[in-house]
């Protein structure tokens, strides 16, 4: 029987992972090529030595791509567009690597990166990779306290920031956020703080702080430092079920091999083609497909500072596609919902020629059928849903456009990507039959590129992901596989929510609400939202005897979440209720709360302690009280 290219590749990745991944590794330039793919402890390319920055930049210049654009920066916020060739980007990166080194950053040292969507973000990340340092990028929408938590966990030698980020309604000054974070943190970056000054705001620099662009210009180019494939490339913090973020570690070798392979097999993007991921370098999507993936492939990456709507209009995405010759766009469904809401007939499209666009890739949250249909009708190109997480670093399930395009089933991110042995398990850990919903897990060994551990806390890694079902990685998502092997992802089984494609923890919001002096108990759940997919909604029970003006209290609680987590939490709704629905053993029935919020109805769980609180909750959600 002849198999399709996908089935062939998938089967080989399972029966002969060594051969499959050593072949894929040949697309990477190694200082010492690996002789083995996987060792007994699940680490990839254990004897390989390489440099990720070399693979992203130097090798392309060496191979004659020096004059090709590496980065196109398009700021819809300022109207600026600039282009850097591979040679120009390499020059900046190698100089900035020199600047970092002069400040004491060496192999294995961490650098916190708090930058908006400017091309300097790529310079800093790649400069770290060049000298074997470990970058940890923090998204600009997080508050000082979140930045401080990451500083204390990563213990950076240097912190690099910009003077400001630009949001449609305001200039976000970063320096006061950095100052406050450093005041809250115990750790001091002994190599100092470097600031990229932007025209909109110039930050005042104090002792131990310097102008990043000046240091870059004054530094000598520095060469690549070879690192072990298993050495960390970066740490990216993501929301877990508790308030404490998890430091997802990415290694160098597995990551380079997996991303390089994904660029051709999944995204069908080759050298010289323009790839645009409209996300942010602060998220995993940005790490993998704004920075590393396209550059490892020798493609041109678009760095877009702007929104899908309002900067200045709902044609912004079409303009970027047309102006820069974008072949594939990757973004979150929310961005398309935002455009659809403002320009349902896509009238703006008439102003641009986007005939060069081949594919739209969507991920980060569930792709609802309506948005899918709208995108297909509007763009007239394949709309490819694919499913992945910060932890995996690249897609678990996808329609592999470069390997073998498969029929699309709306609602499904298609099939498991080679390397990911996807299984659906029941509570007891038994594999479920076709069509049955359960916990989606990945059978070990895990593919290259996936996190090998959590920064400084291997026990938490094992406990969070590997202990629930021995031999399997727990994705935290539920869903099923149909008779054709298509995977359907239904939603998280834990307290992680997805707000406009941003992953947030309801636990961390609860931790903020609980510190308010009037609050005895609280719960935060994700409720359905037409634009953002989900938004957080809080419920608080007051301490007995406390009288509080509900409006004033609401405003205080909303402000507290914004101050302590950040505007990105989009926390706006909170109600005072008489009690939270709980089991007799005291567990808050968040699932029942979610059902009431989304449908208005829920069966009263037989375990509930006091059914009357559900009625009170319904009234709060209806706005009757
Ligand atoms: N720095 C500082 N603040 C930021 C920020 C950043 N990098 N990113 C967002 N924020 C702020 C916003 O200004 C907003 O603040 P406000 O409450 O003062 O208005 C708040 O965080 C919420 O932002 P967001 O969730 O983005 O909502 P929005 O209403 O500003 O925009 C969309 C809605 C749909 C246009 C926007 O979410 C979007 O473009 N989404 C695309 C999806 C995406 O990129 N996902 C990333 C993962 S792939
Ligand atoms: P993040 O780590 O921020 O990438 O978020 C990962 C989570 O987003 C996953 O665990 C899913 O819950 C959700 N997610 C990402 N992509 C998809 C998708 N294509 N369909 C459904 N959910 C998705």
Automatic annotation (TrEMBL):
SUPFAM superfamilies: Acetyl-CoA synthetase-like. One of its GO terms (molecular function) is propionate-CoA ligase activity. The keyword Zinc-finger does not apply. Residues 64-445 form the AMP-dependent synthetase/ligase domain. Gene3D superfamilies: 3.30.300.30, N-terminal domain of ligase-like. CDD domains: PrpE (cd05967). Pfam families: ACAS_N, AMP-binding, AMP-binding_C. The keyword Ligase applies. It comes from the Bacteria. Residues 509-587 form the AMP-binding enzyme C-terminal domain. Its EC number is 6.2.1.17. Keywords: Ligase. PROSITE patterns: AMP_BINDING (PS00455). One of its GO terms (cellular component) is intracellular organelle lumen. It is an enzyme of class 6 (ligase). Residues 6-56 form the Acetyl-coenzyme A synthetase N-terminal domain. InterPro entries: ACAS_N, AMP-bd_C, AMP-bd_C_sf, AMP-binding_CS, AMP-dep_synth/lig_dom, ANL_N_sf. Belongs to the ATP-dependent AMP-binding enzyme family. This is Propionyl-CoA synthetase. It comes from Saccharopolyspora gloriosae. The lineage of its organism: Bacteria, Bacillati, Actinomycetota, Actinomycetes, Pseudonocardiales.
């Amino acid at each position: 029987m002849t198999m399709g290219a996908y089935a062939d590749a998938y089967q080989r990745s399972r029966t002969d992972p060594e051969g499959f991944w050593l072949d894929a590794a040949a697309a990477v330039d190694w200082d010492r090529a690996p002789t083995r793919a996987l060792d007994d402890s699940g680490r990839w390319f254990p004897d390989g030595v390489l440099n990720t920055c070399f693979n992203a930049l130097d090798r392309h210049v060496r191979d004659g791509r020096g004059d090709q654009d590496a980065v196109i920066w398009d700021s819809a916020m300022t109207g600026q567009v600039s282009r850097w060739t591979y040679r120009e980007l390499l020059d900046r990166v190698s100089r900035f690597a020199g600047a970092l080194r002069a400040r004491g950053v060496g192999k294995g040292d961490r650098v916190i990166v708090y930058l908006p969507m400017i091309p300097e973000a790529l310079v800093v990340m790649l400069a770290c990779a060049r000298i074997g340092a470990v970058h940890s990028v923090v998204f600009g929408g997080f508050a000082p306290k979140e930045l401080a938590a990451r500083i204390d966990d990563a213990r950076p030698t240097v912190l690099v920031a910009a003077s400001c980020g630009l949001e449609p309604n305001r200039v976000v000054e970063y320096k006061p956020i950095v100052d406050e974070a450093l005041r809250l943190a115990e750790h001091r970056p002994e190599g100092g703080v470097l600031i990229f000054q932007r025209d909109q705001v110039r930050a005042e620099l104090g002792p131990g702080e310097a102008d990043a662009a000046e240091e870059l210009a004054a530094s000598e180019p520095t060469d690549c430092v070879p690192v072990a494939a298993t050495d960390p490339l970066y740490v990216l913090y993501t929301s877990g079920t508790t308030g404490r973020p998890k430091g997802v570690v990415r290694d160098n070798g597995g990551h380079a091999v997996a991303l390089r392979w994904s660029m051709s097999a999944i995204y069908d993007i080759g050298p010289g083609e323009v790839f645009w991921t409209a996300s942010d370098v602060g998220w995993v999507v940005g790490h993998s497909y704004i920075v590393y993936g396209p550059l490892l492939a020798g493609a041109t990456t678009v760095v877009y500072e702007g929104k899908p709507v309002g900067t200045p209009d709902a044609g912004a995405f079409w303009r970027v596609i047309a102006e820069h010759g974008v072949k594939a766009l990757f973004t979150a469904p929310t961005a398309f919902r935002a455009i659809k809401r403002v320009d349902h007939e896509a009238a703006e499209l008439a102003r641009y020629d986007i005939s060069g666009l081949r594919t739209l890739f969507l991920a980060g949250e569930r792709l609802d059928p309506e948005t899918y249909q709208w995108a297909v009708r509007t763009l007239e190109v394949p709309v490819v849903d694919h499913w992945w997480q910060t932890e995996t670093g690249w897609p678990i399930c996808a329609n592999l456009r470069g390997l073998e395009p498969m029929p699309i089933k709306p609602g499904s991110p298609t099939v498991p990507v080679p390397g990911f042995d996807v299984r659906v398990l029941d509570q007891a850990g038994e594999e479920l039959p076709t069509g049955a919903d359960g916990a989606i897990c990945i059978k070990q060994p895990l593919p290259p590129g996936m996190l090998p551990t959590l920064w400084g806390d291997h026990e938490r890694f094992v406990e969070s992901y590997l202990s629930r079902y021995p031999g399997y990685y727990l994705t935290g998502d539920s869903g099923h596989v149909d008779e054709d092997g298509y995977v359907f992802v239904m939603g998280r089984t834990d307290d992680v929510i997805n707000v406009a494609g941003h992953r947030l923890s309801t636990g961390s919001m609860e931790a903020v609400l609980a510190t308010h002096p009037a609050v005895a108990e609280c719960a935060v759940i994700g409720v359905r939202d037409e634009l953002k997919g989900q938004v957080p909604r809080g419920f608080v029970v007051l301490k007995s005897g406390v009288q509080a003006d509900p409006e004033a209290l609401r405003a205080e609680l909303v402000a507290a979440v914004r101050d302590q987590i950040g505007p990105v939490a989009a926390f706006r709704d909170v109600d005072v209720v008489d009690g939270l629905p709980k089991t007799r053993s005291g567990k808050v029935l968040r699932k029942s709360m979610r059902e009431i919020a989304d449908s208005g109805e829920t069966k009263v769980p037989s375990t509930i302690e006091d059914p009357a609180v559900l009625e009170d909750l319904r009234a709060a959600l209806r706005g009757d009280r």
